[in-house]
Design goal:
Elements lengths: L4 H25 L3 E4 L2 E4 L10 E8 L5 E6 L5 E6 L6 E5 L2 H11 L14
Antiparallel strand pairs: 1-2, 3-4, 4-5, 5-6
């Protein structure tokens, strides 16, 4: 069986065009806006992130430095540390066990990551 390269190229180009014809309207359909004269305004609701809350709990690290513990909107607990290398502030998350315990104390629902159990 001999394959005609011209027909194969024609088939591949037709397939690519079909995919583009389907994909473009789908991506454009996700944009919600209204036109007000020459101005286009977004009608999508942009959810703002809630600020973390400082708790009354503290965390003491291996260098014996005490940090206040903050809790995010999902119930994850973290401390704000300063990097020794760069001097920039970053969040060090304290893990699910500490977060669950603090959420229990504060009577807050913890929405942390769930682990999948493998079936043996």
């Amino acid at each position: 069986m001999k394959i005609d390269m011209f027909k194969l190229a024609q088939y591949i180009i037709s397939l690519i065009c079909l995919i583009i014809l389907i994909a473009v309207p789908l991506t454009c359909a996700g944009q919600d806006y209204k036109q007000n004269g020459t101005v286009f305004e977004s009608t999508k609701v942009i959810r703002s992130k809630s600020e973390p809350i400082k708790t009354e709990f503290t965390y003491k690290d291996s260098d014996n430095i005490t940090y206040p513990i903050y809790i995010s909107s999902t119930g994850s607990c973290f401390i704000n540390k300063i990097s020794k290398k760069s001097g920039k502030e970053y969040r060090k998350y304290l893990g699910a066990e500490i977060s669950e315990e603090i959420c229990k104390e504060l009577k807050i629902t913890y929405k942390g990551k769930t682990t999948k159990v493998k079936n043996s």
